[in-house]
# Entry
Amino acid sequence: LGTGTAEVHASDTDIFFVTEGPATIVTGGTVVEPKTTGVGEIRGTKTEGGGARKLVKGDVLVVPSGTPHWFSEVNETFLYFLVKVTK
# Structure
């Protein structure tokens, strides 16, 4: 529980299907303390700016490639199915 790391995927679009629990995700903005972790992959401690939204069971969220995203708040069990679509 807590927060995740911020991510940006140059070529992958993430499609989240929430199967359990709530969480807050931030999309957009700028990655703080960015580090390249692989080809086209950046990770950081969090994002600044962007828009926050709460996800709950049944929600679907598409995060296009090149879009920073970060789970800023996870206070209980949060499960999701992730589909990655690669360019």
